[in-house]
Each structure stands twice: as C-alpha cells, then as structure tokens.
Amino acid sequence: MEKNSQLLQSVKDFLHLQSITPLPASVCERCGASLEYFNAQFWFYGTELECNIPLPICRFCG
Questions:
Q1: Environment class of residue 10 by beta-carbon count within 10 Å: exposed (0-12), middle (13-18) or buried (19+)?
Q2: In the beta sheet, which residues pair with residue 41?
Q3: How far from the centroid of its chain's Cα atoms is residue 16's Cα?
Q4: b/e map of 28-53 (b: 16 or more CB within 10 Å)?
Q5: Which residues contact residue 35 at a Cβ distance below 8 angstroms, ignoring those fewer than 6 apart?
Q6: Which bin fits 61, alpha (ψ -120 to 50), beta or left (φ > 0)?
Q7: pTM (two decimals)
Q8: Which of 40, 48, 58, 59 has a CA that sits 20 to 30 A from residue 6's CA?
Q9: Is 25 helix (H, G, I), strand (E, B) or coil?
C-alpha cells in the first residue's frame, strides 16, 4: 500500500506543477504556426484531486 500512496503523491505533485508552470511561447514543429493552449482537466476517481493543465494545440496541424 505504501507504494500506491507514493505513486499517487508523485502524480499529484506532477499535475500540480504542470498546472502552475508558466506557458512558454511556442510554435508548431511541423508548420511553424503559434500554438494555442487548450485547458485539459485531469482528476483521479475516488479522490478530490483535480487539475487543469494547458496542453499545446496547433490550429492548423491539429
């Protein structure tokens, strides 16, 4: 059980860090267009952990 709680804590820490990290100005590696960010919501069933993490999306390449 301790490994499970360590794993859950590691994932919580990762998601929290990703949700507060400033977004870099990025361009698409394929076409060079500016990337837009889509807020993706992550949560763990059975916990109160919920994070919004911006994921980069190219509006031209998908």
A1: exposed
A2: 52
A3: 9
A4: beeeeeebeeeeeeeeeeeeeeebeb
A5: 26, 27, 28, 56, 57, 58
A6: alpha
A7: 0.58
A8: 40
A9: coil
First vs last C-alpha separation in the chain: 40
Is 60 exceeded by the pLDDT of residue 1?
no
Domain extents in the chain: 2-57
* Residue 45 structure tokens: 């069933």
- Amino acid letter, 8: L
Q: Which amino acid is at 35?
A: L
Where do the DSSP E strands lie in 1-62?
A: 36-43, 50-57
- Both tokens of 18, joined, read 């990703």
pLDDT of residue 42: 83
